[in-house]
């Protein structure tokens, strides 16, 4: 770790993030194996499509637990928009799509991230509820079960493309972002550019944890 | 492809249940202990090991009671909802137009059970698979007629080439007159089991306008391709964004620590 890096996330946040990410990825891959006959071979890799079904179902429970912690942890920070600055940011699309002289400064999460979080929270919950009913279809009326299949497919049609947006903006689309979810330390330059308001807030409150300066002890004081 | 259909003329059915037994015999499906609950309909419903069943019902008709019989079982739809939803390809269309099950491939997901407009597939807990009539595909391939048709003593169940049988069905319905109608050739792309009914379909517990449920059409024909198209669009969009607009970089040199976080 270099001197001067700033702590953006704590270990708990990163653990929840990766549990959610990995379980979601496994669900997408195994789900594709059941959704398209041309992807049935993914089941072969797991010892048959039936095994794949079980991997999918039980990973769903892992996803459920991860999602619960993610929503509980991030709801206050990422689930609520702070007007009017979020609206201003949305009007210029955060400077991502066209040239903007001055992108409004945002806090810990920008409106794009908030929308992504809400999509994961809402459609993730939808996937869990519909998925559980699909797991035990004989306990429910067929009409309801059919609706669940449709909504499960709808959730996938939303989450799967979103996943790639997230992947792009978390890596090459916004260099410097990835370390927030790996080591948890980011550069001041990145923080100033991406979450200027948050940087100011932390500075004002004296909450800023800078690597190498006044080692306040642990890197995870959750 | 020569399509074959099974014609069930309910007006000729005496409710002997010979077809039920013949089905069990040919397909090696032992009966299970059952209970008398006040009707000849036995077992009470289709089961994982009962692929065809005579349904008995009593309907009030002026001053008397009509006792009617209907041989229930897979309708072998051309536009089969079960085949559409089956994730493993266990349910498939045979070369004679019928719908068969490859039990080896079945993963017990039960999607076909909620999809079927006729409530046919049955799940067996012991094997974690679904079962239903395959219109005796093994017999058809050996130039034999299905076991139920073979066993039927009255000619209520017959089997033959699609066009020939449909012509026979319409002629019979005309002959019977009244409410009599042909059931099966006008929906889900035409079924490969066709009834000649003496009463309205509802009376026999049949849906009057069966179809592949709308939720399944939306799921399979719209959302399924849309999910891949959207994902592909996003990947292409991200790539274009990277080479046209470029990534969002921190403003350089306003910080002693360079780009440590990449």
Q: In summary, what is this structure?
A:
Chain A has 222 residues and is mainly alpha-helical.
Plain-language structure description:
The complex is a heterodimer of chains A (222) and B (262). Chain A has 222 residues and is mainly alpha-helical. Chain A has one domain (12-186): Up-down Bundle (Fumarate Reductase Cytochrome B subunit). Chain A is built from 7 helices and 2 strands. In chain A, helix 1 (11-35) crosses helix 3, helix 3 runs antiparallel to helix 5 and helix 5 (111-135) runs antiparallel to helix 6. The longest helix of chain A has 30 residues, at 49-78. The model of chain A is unreliable at 217-222 (pLDDT under 50). Chain B has 262 residues and is α+β, with helices and mostly antiparallel strands. Chain B has 2 domains: 4-209, Alpha-Beta Plaits (2-Layer Sandwich), CATH 3.30.70.20; 213-247. Chain B has helices at residues 18-27, 81-85, 111-115, 137-141, 147-151, 162-176, 214-244; strands at residues 4-9, 53-61, 64-72, 91-93, 99-101, 122-124, 129-131, 157-161, 181-183, 193-197. In chain B, the strands form 4 sheets. A 4-stranded mixed β-sheet of chain B has the order 8-1-10-9. Chains A and B meet through helix 3, helix 6, strand 2 and helix 7 of A and helix 3 and helix 7 of B.
